[in-house]
Specification:
Length: 159
């Protein structure tokens, strides 16, 4: 890890806002999966964390999923991601090998058919890279990933 990365991930810096650089009117939704021994009691005690909903993740052993409300690239939304992950970590949850994360992108900011086509073309061209960078170097992709997160680039009509 280089010195710039060390600074970014330092304890003092974790709760500071760093813009993702998303368009102002773009919305996203985030889902974080985690594993821990007390998933049912945790969910019963904390039906939500900072407005995020907790639910059992049936695809994981002792797993849960925490689902965000609709988010934008605003300080309070980005900081809520840190708060949720810190709460999970302090409660003994881990992101095990079977865990995944999902980001849903709202396309309301795309105002024309042409803009939607351009987005799909960019996504289709970048999809293989997104799969590759979703794991640490040398890690095997999540078992069964293609059954829960199938690539869509082959379904996008190219003309």
């Amino acid at each position: 890890m280089g010195s710039d990365e060390s600074i970014y991930f330092s304890k003092e810096n974790q709760m500071k806002y760093h813009s993702f650089g998303l368009p102002e009117n773009m919305t996203i939704g985030v889902e974080i999966e985690a594993e821990g021994e007390m998933n049912i009691s945790f969910i019963n005690d904390k039906r939500s964390i900072s407005g995020w909903k907790c639910k059992i993740e049936v695809g994981l052993w002792n797993g849960l999923e925490v689902v965000s409300p609709i988010l934008q690239d605003k300080p309070e939304n980005v900081i809520s991601i840190y708060k949720v992950t810190e709460t999970l970590k302090k409660s003994g949850f881990i992101a095990g090998i079977q865990c995944g994360g999902h980001i849903h992108i709202g396309v309301d900011y795309l105002k024309s058919v042409e803009a939607i086509k351009e987005f799909l073309e960019i996504f289709g061209n970048a999809e293989k890279i997104l799969y590759l960078i979703s794991n640490q170097p040398g890690e095997v992709s999540r078992c069964g990933i293609l059954s829960v997160a199938r690539p869509i680039s082959s379904k996008i009509e190219r003309k």
